[in-house]
């Protein structure tokens, strides 16, 4: 019985056989051709008995070797120069493990999940994956590559028909290249990419200031009825309120770290509420011929100030009826396009 067969037997007897199909020498050679000799660090995810890292180290002699492997039997079989950094891939935050290169020959029953995890979080220049050829049809892998702005290309093909542990699997050896940071100093931190993709508020701040002016809103509502304007106000108000409520769903420790001050939030919310009402009253006044034709500019300004100075004067249909239209007319009958 050869060494691999003995290992497989031990794994089965101990319940640790998590699809241990050792990478062949031909697969390792294909990866080695694309890995520079000056590599500083290499991490094998699902490192097995360490044979891949041992082979790659023959070329990259100064590289520090890291391994993630769930089987204690296989970890014990690894060379002493492999540094274990974890056991279960899905308990690791790969964005905290910065290396030059990642290698992975995953469990094929879960290969999509493994690939998406590596593509999404891998903090490396490139990753080399030995995966079933059907990966090209995977929408989840396609999505992960797109979200990370990563590029994948096939650099070789092989199978396990004559491998140390045989299988019917036909595989591609895939090279995944990760994007550089915007300063071209190195690989972009995957956390930064995740943050930019999920927190777009800051990027849209300048665009909001330029586009969401009272004049633009007036044009937007030029053909709207008063009831539609009230509905738009209510929608914008509810969104603002929900955003502020969401702040206080965060743990106190996070709020403290972000410098969120309760008094500042209270004052900010108060100003936003008042400003929102003022904005809609101003738009309405600019478009109500029945009002503007009867009031001088100064009188109009005084009335607007009285309405907006008091936070209790809401932009509602009953308020509009009483203050703008009188009892004998409906709100919509006096609204004309400016």
What does this entry look like structurally?
The chain has 2 domains: about 5-195, 3-Layer(aba) Sandwich (Rossmann fold); about 200-335, no CATH class. It contains 15 helices and 7 strands. The chain has helices at about 5-15, 25-30, 50-60, 70-75, 110-120, 140-150, 190-200, 205-210, 215-220, 225-245, 250-255, 260-285, 290, 295-310, 315-325; strands at about 40-45, 65-70, 80-85, 100-105, 125-130, 150-160, 170-175. Strands 3-2-1-4-5-7-6 form a 7-stranded mixed beta sheet, sandwiched between helices. Helix 9 packs across helix 12. Residues about 325-338 have low confidence and may be disordered.
CATH architecture of the largest domain: 3-Layer(aba) Sandwich
Text of the CATH class of the largest domain: Alpha Beta
Query: How many angstroms does the end-to-end distance come to?
Result: 90 Å
Helix segment tally: 15
Give start-end ranges of low-pLDDT stretches. 326-338
SS class: alpha/beta
Radius of gyration: 32 Å
- How many E-type strands? 7
SSE order: HHEHEHEEHEHEEHHHHHHHHH
């Amino acid at each position: 019985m050869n060494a691999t067969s003995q290992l497989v037997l031990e794994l089965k007897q101990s319940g640790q056989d998590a699809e241990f199909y050792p990478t062949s020498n031909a697969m390792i050679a294909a990866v080695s051709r694309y890995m520079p000799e000056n590599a500083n660090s290499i991490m094998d995810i699902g490192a097995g008995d360490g044979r891949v890292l041992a082979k790659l180290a023959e070329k990259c002699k100064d590289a520090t070797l890291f391994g993630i492997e769930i089987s204690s039997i296989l970890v014990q079989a690894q060379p002493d120069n492999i540094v274990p950094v974890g056991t279960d891939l899905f308990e690791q935050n790969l964005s905290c493990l910065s290396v030059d290169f990642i290698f992975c020959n995953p469990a094929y029953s879960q290969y999509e999940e493994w690939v998406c995890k590596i593509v999404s979080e891998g903090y490396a220049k490139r990753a080399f994956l030995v995966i079933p050829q059907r990966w090209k049809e995977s929408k989840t892998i396609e999505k992960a590559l797109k979200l990370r702005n990563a590029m994948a290309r096939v650099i070789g093909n092989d199978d396990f028909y004559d491998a140390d542990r045989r299988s019917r699997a036909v595989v591609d050896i895939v090279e995944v290249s990760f994007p550089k940071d915007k300063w071209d100093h190195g690989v972009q931190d995957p956390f930064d990419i995740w943050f930019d993709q999920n927190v777009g508020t800051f990027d849209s701040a300048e665009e909001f200031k330029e586009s969401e002016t009272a004049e633009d809103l007036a044009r937007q509502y030029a053909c709207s009825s008063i009831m539609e304007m009230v509905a738009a106000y209510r929608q914008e108000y509810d969104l603002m309120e929900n955003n502020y409520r969401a702040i206080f769903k965060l743990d106190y420790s996070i709020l403290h770290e972000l410098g969120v001050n309760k008094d500042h939030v209270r004052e900010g919310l108060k100003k936003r509420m008042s400003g929102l009402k003022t904005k809609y009253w101003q738009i309405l006044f600019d478009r109500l011929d029945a009002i503007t034709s009867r009031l001088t500019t100064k009188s109009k300004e005084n009335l607007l100030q009285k309405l907006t100075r008091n936070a209790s004067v809401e932009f509602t249909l009953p308020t509009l009826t009483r203050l703008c239209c009188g009892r004998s007319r409906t709100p919509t009958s006096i609204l004309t396009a400016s």
